[in-house]
Design goal:
The chain is mostly helical. It is built from four helices and no strands.
Length: 131
């Protein structure tokens, strides 16, 4: 009985994962926020099952395989979400250049002493590097 309950929860989670993936790949397919909230609720329901904490090592092999596949789907979803976030950040940087954050090369004169690799007057300190 506990295995059937876990299986049904995993089915629900897989359905929500497919919906989130569809929203990530095609923005016109639905609301990503709503799909993510549904997925979060399904995962919380699964984590609240009392059988989950007790069945850590007692899960049958097919159920362990199913959980590993679901975790791999989460990883793929997370990567797609990170890609989409990066594209949105780059797009915003192109639309509004004043908000760009230059991590490695701050503007000249921003600091009293410029960090290595920054734009500004070169001092010639590192003309020769020897081992």
């Amino acid at each position: 009985m506990p295995n059937r309950l876990i299986q049904s929860h995993l089915d629900t989670i897989d359905t929500h994962l497919v919906q989130v993936s569809r929203c990530l790949l095609d923005p016109d397919s639905g609301d990503l926020v709503h799909a993510s909230a549904n997925l979060q609720a399904a995962v919380l329901e699964l984590s609240r099952l009392p059988q989950i904490s007790a069945l850590d090592t007692q899960l049958p092999s097919p159920l362990k395989l199913r959980m590993l596949q679901t975790m791999a789907s989460f990883d793929a979803c997370r990567e797609a979400l990170m890609r989409r976030s990066f594209l949105a950040e780059i797009s915003l940087g192109n639309l509004i250049p004043a908000t760009r954050n230059h991590t490695y090369a701050p503007a000249a004169g921003r600091f009293r002493r410029q960090p290595y690799g920054s734009a500004g007057r070169q001092s010639g300190e590192f003309q020769v590097i020897s081992a």
